[in-house]
Request: fold
Amino acid sequence: MGKVIQVSLPVDELPRYWYNILPDLPGKLPEPLNEDGRIERLKDILVPECIRQESLSERWVRIPEEVRELYLRAGRPRPLHRAIGLEKMLKTPARLYYKREDLSPTGSHKVNTALAQVYYAAEAGYSRVVTETGAGQWGTAVAYAASLMGLRSTIYWVREAYEWKAERRIFMRLYGAEVLASPSGKTEFGRKLLEKDSRHKGTLGIAISEAAEDALKNDDTVYPVGSVLNYVLMHQTIIGLEVIRQLEVLDEVPDIMIGCFGGGSNFGGFALPMIGKVLRGEVDKKIRFLAAQSEAAPNLVKGVYQYDFPDAAQILPRIKGYTLTHSFDMPSIWAEGLRYHMASPIISFLKNIGMVEAVAYSKDEKAIFEAAKMFIEAEGFLPAPESSYAIRAMIDEALKAKDAGEEKTIVANISGHGFLDLEAYNRVLNL
Reply:
């Protein structure tokens, strides 16, 4: 055939370790602030093993065999595709590749940390997990993981997405989850917000607060976190570790690695293993790491690098990262999973030292969905609105390479599929 158009790793090459970038960073990552005992309070909110993993000094962290088995059941390793059709459509000399995280049982990369965190929760004796979700992918992943391990689950879902994504609500409930529009009447914080505005649209920061409050008040309950924190990004490095091996098979070293960006979980999981190789001097080539955001929540592009609360109710400790502030009023977009005020501390640190770049696209999302339609027509796969930001950036970079006559190698992460987002496609593209 002449070209390798897909690299699928054998199951015995599924990574046995997650990658922890903390010991490779050129400097110490700023620690959370322990104001009013908030750090001590975390033991009553978060999974105990995950709290331990937040500040590990080991570069390689063994994945429990039970979690590796769950990864295999969830279809890992996942393929890396060459975007032959898109290359032809764009007439670009760039070689384009994309990682297929949309192939998980729930349709996104989120299962990579959900399976780990819920496994640790079950091992610690909890019978219920509670979490937030924005676009719905994280909530679905937690519901899925809880179902496999016999735990009950409650999902606080940003009301705006909850109300238009009826099929995803059904999907979560098929896994046995209790799914609540956030702000909800179940928590004190939610009730306060509803008293002021009974149709409050919600935000991810509010849903995080509700989940944290629920976990804090119920001894049988613990809170798996969907993004931002160090251990979440570490669990997601299963993506980037597979990509490194797949690029080795292709004898390729990327010029650009691209992922969409809200809080940082899929971008971090995809890019951090390669960033680590750069930091350790194992790569001779300059690689750009590009985060694709929305102007609705451009935390890396327009945020300030400072301490801020990751949740609206200020239950959790303040962490240092690029933030629009926890009270920032974010406009509505279809890519709800990118609508978060704060960037991960790790990615923020890397952005601050110039290793990570970011671009923000117009909140009308027309350019995003047009790029997604091009991808669908050329490659045949239906990406999630969030993933389409990475596709838009990949197309833009491929066209720049065309104009410059440069043979770039560009790799993007397709973080999820869009089969439960067709209404968004219809609304934006008037299909």
Notes: The chain has two domains: 6-15+74-108+231-429, 19-63+110-222. The radius of gyration is 20 Å. The longest strand covers residues 152-158.
